[in-house]
Amino acid sequence: MQTEYQQYMIEGQRAGLRYCLIPPRNVPQGLIGMQMGNRPGSSLEFMDHREYQPGDDLRRIDWSAYARSDKLTVKLYREEVNPHVDIVIDGSASMALQDSRKAHATLALAALLAQSADNAGYAHRAWLAGEVCQEITNSTEQPATWQSIDFDYTGNPGESLMKQTSPLQPRGIRILISDLLWLYDPMATLLRLSEKATSVFVIQLLAKADVAAPERGNIRLVDSETQQTLELFIDASTQQRYRDRLSGHQQNWHNCTRQCGATMATLIAEDMLANWDLSELLQKEILRVS
After folding, report:
1. pTM for this entry
2. What is the DSSP string of 138-186?
3. What are the residue ranges spanned by the domains of the chain?
4. Which of 9, 24, 86, 180 is 20 to 30 Å from 264 by CA-CA measure?
């Protein structure tokens, strides 16, 4: 791991002292280290009724309500929430391009989120999606002590999540930090992250160069992961196609996160490092000022 990365994790941890991770809404504190979430689950605390839908567990049908109204309804119960956060970092080479600050911003943001989880009373664990998705050394400790983090993976982070060395904590919160600039079905990734989770946050971290269309003229593109090259002539129509495809890719991720009940936010690496602009994380109710 590069020595300079350590400084960004220290700065991120320091900045995180100002924030708290927001737990699932309407979550009363439990007495044994557990919390109750706002999604339907299988605990014993009654939450609400809703109309029966095909596929619902027949054991949840409220037969007394059926006798009164002649309508099938099911009982919903609050699920238990484990006060734990798993932070998954995209370890692919595209996160550490030359002249890009994405790697620095990624580690600073991961450290900030870990500290904000601690401020909210949550334990945390950090993971790196590389050849396999494995736990970062010292990941349960303060972020400044994290070790063995490199952005050199040439594969697909979505596939990496399918090769996890150990399971993520059940009933906890999962956070993915990635530029999302890889070809893989977002739904497959989100379903993997959502499995037995209470909440899932996807934070897309882009560099300014990712957002801006390439300048006009002849350019040579080099794939940071495969090293393949492509000669292109950039004109106005090419620039617009780039913008349209990036927008469509982002919209596809937004649509899939909504379908999975997850939350997605996008940050620009340079802006975040310059002034800790986390306004979107505050607006999306991922963080709050402590």
Report:
1. 0.78
2. TTTS-GGG-B-----B-S-HHHHHTTBSSPPPTTSEEEEEE---S-S-H
3. 3-23+83-209+253-282, 38-81
4. 9
How many angstroms separate the CA atoms of 279 and 283, rounded?
Answer: 6
Phi/psi of residue 55, nearest 5 degrees: 100, -15
Do 182 and 157 form a contact (C-beta atoms < 8 A)?
Answer: yes
* pLDDT per residue as tens digits for the range 163-188: 888 889 888 999 999 999 998 889 99
Superfamily in which the 3-23+83-209+253-282 domain is placed by CATH: von Willebrand factor, type A domain (3.40.50.410)
Query: Taking CA 138 as the corner, what is the angle to CA 157 and CA 115, rounded to the nearest 5 degrees?
Result: 85
3-class DSSP assignment, residue 203: strand
Whether the CB-CB separation of 100 and 89 falls below 8 Å is answered with no
| Torsion over CA: 176, 177, 179, 181 (sign) | negative
Query: Beta-carbon neighbour count of residue 124 at 10 Å?
Result: 25
